[in-house]
C-alpha cells in the first residue's frame, strides 16, 4: 500500500514563501496584482477562479477579474486584452482557456504580453519551456507537478518517466520540464498501442489524459510514483482524477489524490508566478 503525496502541504509551503515575497514588495510600495480575464461564465473557469482568488488573497496579492461577454468579437477582445497588457498596476494575466469559438487563440496568443503571461499562453513562453530557459513562465499545472515531486524529494535524474497525455496544457510541457531534470521521458496517449505495457514501465507516471479513472492497476508498475493531473466529475458528482486511486494506491509507492493533489498546488504556483512577474516589472 502506497503513501499519499499531499498537495495541500506542498501548496502551503509554496504559499508561505510567496506571501513573504509579496509582503516584501508591499514594504517597498509595490502591490503585486493578478488580473483574470474571463469570457462568459463557464463553470470550470468559475471553479478555478474561486480557488485562484482565494489563494491570491492568502498570499497578499491583489486581484481584478475582467469579465467579458460570452459573445464578444475578436476585435473587441483584443482591445480589452491590450488594455490589461498596458495596465501598469497588473503584473500577471490569467486568461481562461479554451476560449469561445468566435475567438481565435492562434491570434490571441501573440497578443498577451509575455512578461505578464503567468500561465504560458504566449509562444515566447512556450519556446522558453522547450529551451529549458527558466526566465519565462511554464504553465501552472505542469509546474505544480514538478513542485510536488521536488517537495517529496523524488529523484528524477535518469528516472524512467512516462507521461500519459500530449496536450499543450499538461502533457507536452510537463514532458519538457521532466526532461529538464534529466529524466528519461516517454510520451504516450490515446492512440498508443498497448498503452498499459508502456505506462507500466514507469518509475514515475504522470497522467493528464482527461478521462475519469482510466488508469487502473494494470497500468502501474509495483512501487511506481503516480501523479494524477486529471480533474473530472464522477457518476456521483464527486471530483475524481484520471487515475483509479483506490486500485492504484495498492501498487504505487507514492500517489497523488484528487482532490487534494496536484490541483491544490496549481494556484500556489500561479501566485508564485505573479510575484516573479512583479519582480521582473518593478
Ligand atoms: N489558462 C487556464 N489555466 C487553467 O489552469 C485553467 C483554465 N485556463 N481554464 C479552466 C480550467 C479549469 N481549471 C480547474 C482547476 C481546478 C479545479 C478544481 O476543482 N480545483 C479544486 C481542487 C482540486 C484538487 O485539490 O485536486 C478546488 O479548487 O477545490 C477546477 C478547474 C483550470 N483551468
UniProtKB/TrEMBL annotation:
Record pathway: One-carbon metabolism; tetrahydrofolate interconversion
The Tetrahydrofolate dehydrogenase/cyclohydrolase NAD(P)-binding domain extends over: 139-281
CDD domains (alphabetical): NAD_bind_m-THF_DH_Cyclohyd
UniProt keywords (A-Z) are:
Amino-acid biosynthesis, Histidine biosynthesis, Hydrolase, Methionine biosynthesis, Multifunctional enzyme, NADP, One-carbon metabolism, Oxidoreductase, Purine biosynthesis
Q: Which domain of life is it from?
A: Bacteria
Q: Which reaction does it catalyse?
A: (6R)-5,10-methenyltetrahydrofolate + H2O = (6R)-10-formyltetrahydrofolate + H(+); (6R)-5,10-methylene-5,6,7,8-tetrahydrofolate + NADP(+) = (6R)-5,10-methenyltetrahydrofolate + NADPH
| Record-listed NADP(+) binding positions | 165-167, 231
Q: What is its EC number?
A: 1.5.1.5, 3.5.4.9
Instruction: Give TM regions.
Output: none
GO aspect biological process, one term: methionine biosynthetic process
Q: Where is the Tetrahydrofolate dehydrogenase/cyclohydrolase catalytic domain?
A: 5-119
Which molecular-function annotations from GO does this UniProt entry contain? methenyltetrahydrofolate cyclohydrolase activity; methylenetetrahydrofolate dehydrogenase (NADP+) activity
Query: What do the Gene Ontology cellular component annotations say?
Result: cytosol
Q: Which PANTHER family match?
A: C-1-TETRAHYDROFOLATE SYNTHASE, CYTOPLASMIC, C-1-TETRAHYDROFOLATE SYNTHASE, CYTOPLASMIC-RELATED
The record's subunit annotation is: Homodimer.
General function of this protein = Catalyzes the oxidation of 5,10-methylenetetrahydrofolate to 5,10-methenyltetrahydrofolate and then the hydrolysis of 5,10-methenyltetrahydrofolate to 10-formyltetrahydrofolate.
| UniProt record similarity statement | Belongs to the tetrahydrofolate dehydrogenase/cyclohydrolase family.
Per its record, how is this protein called by name?
Answer: Bifunctional protein FolD
Q: Which organism is it from?
A: Alkalibaculum sporogenes
Q: Which gene encodes it?
A: folD
